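User: Predict the structure for this protein chain, please.
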Amino acid sequence: MRLLLATNNRDKAAEIRAILSGLDVGLVLPADIALKVEVEEDADTFEGNAAKKACAFAAAAGMEALADDSGLAVEALGGRPGVFSARYAGPGCAYADNNRKLLAEMAALPPERREARMVCVAAVATPRGLLLTVRGECRGRIALAPRGTNGFGYDPVFVPEGQTRAFAEMAPHEKAAISHRGRALRALRAALVERGFSSRSAR
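Assistant: Here is the predicted structure, written as structure tokens:
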């Protein structure tokens, strides 16, 4: 079976591939099938955006599609950046721009008010519509300055609960073991196996 990864973000695609590596399914990128789909992520929830992307890509490709919507929610900022995480500093911004804006907004906050959550909602859709969604969260805090060179997005400023290192200071497998995306995709993998996808690790 084949599953289209409904994303043009290569960093995200690589992380998804690694986490789902034991699932006996061919993971396909839009570029692999010359597919160009633009989806306006205008929902007010991660669930809404993930479902919208999965359905749009599945309908356009005529095959099952997996999408995720993820981001950072900071308690002291009322849940921002939330669904605007990828474009928090404005259209076309880079990861570093988002991190700079976030740290500037939080500069005056003491350690006890720097709590945050990384959230990931993964959705799978068939060409006929939404099949399922799962959610994963990782609680932690925002560091005072960026740390580490691994990962992407807010990884340099997010320190998971119970850890002293930011995601960007961890090896990919260490991050995947506790991250929001890792938790969501492991739940998704289990759900897909229940629906008929086979798992090589279960053989």
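The CA atoms of residues 34 and 61 lie 10 Å apart.
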